[in-house]
Specification:
Elements (H helix, E strand, L loop, with lengths): L1 H37 E12 L5 E6 L3 E8 L1 H6 L7 E4 L6 E6 L12 E6 L2 E21 L6 E9 L2 E7 H4 L4 E8 L7 E8 L5 E2 L3 E10 L1 E12 L9 E3 L3 E9 L12 E4 L7 E5 L2 E3 L9 E6 L3 E5 L7 H6 L1
Parallel strand pairs: 1-4, 7-10, 14-17
Antiparallel strand pairs: 1-3, 2-7, 3-6, 5-7, 7-9, 8-13, 9-12, 10-11, 11-13, 14-16, 15-21, 16-20, 17-19, 18-21
């Protein structure tokens, strides 16, 4: 009898041990499965803007990168190509202006078996602007002064104007763009350099570099001269050219070595009507120095700036109109 009782107790102990082992295994399996299904990870990813309408561009974007919280099996989260994960905002059909877009789980294309729990921040502020193309003048930044006794006679830029593309809000008020600096310090002769354009990164010029030449020559002094207005010889078949004034005041700069060679008798303000049809015109005169056509005499201004000129015998020419011209 005692032997039977001992065997029975031994059997119960074995069964209890098996039950405990099974329970531990079941709990471990449940914990493993629950952990596999409930693992989470936080991934930072760029926010991409797709399908921006033609003729529009983004000028302000409050968020460049978002944090994406993902949930799924730890194996998937560990092995999935999360480095290539992207958050995308579709701008199809949008119009110019500013508005806020909300970023939900649909903004992220997650691997199969992985759930997007949250995108942070959950919204982005964008401003869309029309794309404009405009022709803009180039202005070089010249620093320093040439050597004593010399000056800059002229600055030549090639190309002088550029086509620039960019947001309308930036480009519509851009009258000119500048170059990186070019130094004239201590120069005694003409100097050339290729320079890069400096402008807002949102603006896109047709070329990034221009050629700038500083024409250096003898220092000049300012003079005010009263010059005769002279009409360039024209083809006999062309209409007669008749300036309304015979004299004009010219503010000029003359090289110091030529001061004794220049006076009102050997300088002229030239008016050219070549190629003009009958009519009344305001023509900008040019300086003519017949005795030394290559002389570097610089014109600062004419007074008046233009010469009223009658070409031929226009029908609209009347005494009141001409007197008011």
């Amino acid at each position: 009898m005692s032997k039977f009782v001992a065997k029975s107790e031994s059997f119960r102990a074995v069964e209890m041990f098996r039950a405990i082992v099974a329970l531990v295994l079941a709990f471990g399996l449940w914990f493993f499965v629950a952990d596999e299904q409930g693992a989470e990870v936080l991934v930072s990813t760029p926010l991409e803007l797709v399908n921006v309408p033609a003729g529009l561009e983004v000028v302000d974007q409050s968020v460049q990168e978002v944090d994406v919280r993902l949930r799924g099996a730890s194996g998937l989260l560990r092995d999935a190509p999360l480095q290539g994960l992207r958050a995308r905002l579709d701008l199809t059909g949008e119009a110019p202006g500013e508005r806020t877009w909300f970023l939900g789980a649909e903004a992220v294309e997650a691997p199969s078996g992985v759930q997007v729990m949250r995108v942070d921040p959950p919204q982005v502020l964008l401003r869309l602007d029309r794309t404009l193309t405009s022709t803009v003048r180039v202005s070089p930044r010249v620093l320093g002064q040439p050597a004593t006794g010399f000056e800059i006679h002229s600055v030549v830029i090639e190309p002088l104007e550029l086509a620039v593309e960019g947001p309308e809000s930036l480009l519509r008020d851009t009258a000119q763009i500048t170059t990186e600096p070019i130094s004239a310090q201590g120069l005694r002769e003409t100097f050339s350099q290729r320079l890069q354009i400096e402008l807002d990164p949102a603006l896109r010029p047709s070329v990034r570099y221009v050629d700038v030449r500083l024409d250096i020559g003898e220092a000049r002094e300012a003079r005010e001269l009263r010059l005769a207005v002279w009409v360039t010889p024209s083809d006999p078949d062309e209409p007669v050219c008749q300036p309304a004034i015979s004299e004009i005041v010219a503010n000029v700069r003359i090289p110091r070595s030529m001061l004794n060679q220049v006076d009102e008798s050997n300088l002229f303000a030239v008016v050219s009507c070549t190629g003009l049809e009958d009519g009344i015109y305001e023509i900008v005169p040019e300086l003519l120095f017949p005795e030394a056509p290559e002389a570097p005499i610089g014109v600062v201004s004419f007074d008046p700036e233009t010469v009223n000129t009658v070409v031929g015998a226009p029908e609209e020419l009347t005494t009141p109109a001409w007197e008011g011209a």
